[in-house]
Amino acid sequence: MYAPPPGLQSANVFVPNKRLREELRRQYERNVFELVNVLGMVAAEAAYAHGEPWLEDMLGYLRGNHAHFAEAINGADPRLKVLPTDSLYLAWMDCRGLGMDAVTLKGPRLARQGPEVRD
């Protein structure tokens, strides 16, 4: 999915699964205001035609940030492990080494710091 900044009001979605693609199309037809933002179309065309060098640089930068974060967390406490990820804006951590259940992890200390804790 390509989603430029909100002001461009443009997005592209690629859904290989036919059933999901049809459901998305049905929901889109029911819920989306179908005005085209010309600047968004031009930006998307420019990104596809000329954006690969920028994209490769950005991916390298984001992967470097993830590696730096993982190194810092993994080195700070051996009970924590940052997991490899395909996502560029999320970091998954294995906190089982802390010996705490999910309810305890969701407690006031982590709530103040803001991470999402899931079972």
UniProtKB/TrEMBL annotation:
Keyword presence, Kinase: no
Top-level division of the source organism's lineage: Bacteria
InterPro entries in the cross-refs: Class-II_PLP-Dep_Aminotrans (IPR051798), PyrdxlP-dep_Trfase (IPR015424), PyrdxlP-dep_Trfase_major (IPR015421), PyrdxlP-dep_Trfase_small (IPR015422)
Nucleus keyword on record: no
Required cofactor names: pyridoxal 5'-phosphate
Matches recorded under SUPFAM superfamilies: PLP-dependent transferases
Keywords in alphabetical order: Pyridoxal phosphate
Listed name of the protein: Bifunctional pyridoxal-dependent enzyme with beta-cystathionase and maltose regulon repressor activities
Organism annotation: Rhizobium mongolense
Organism lineage: Bacteria, Pseudomonadati, Pseudomonadota, Alphaproteobacteria, Hyphomicrobiales
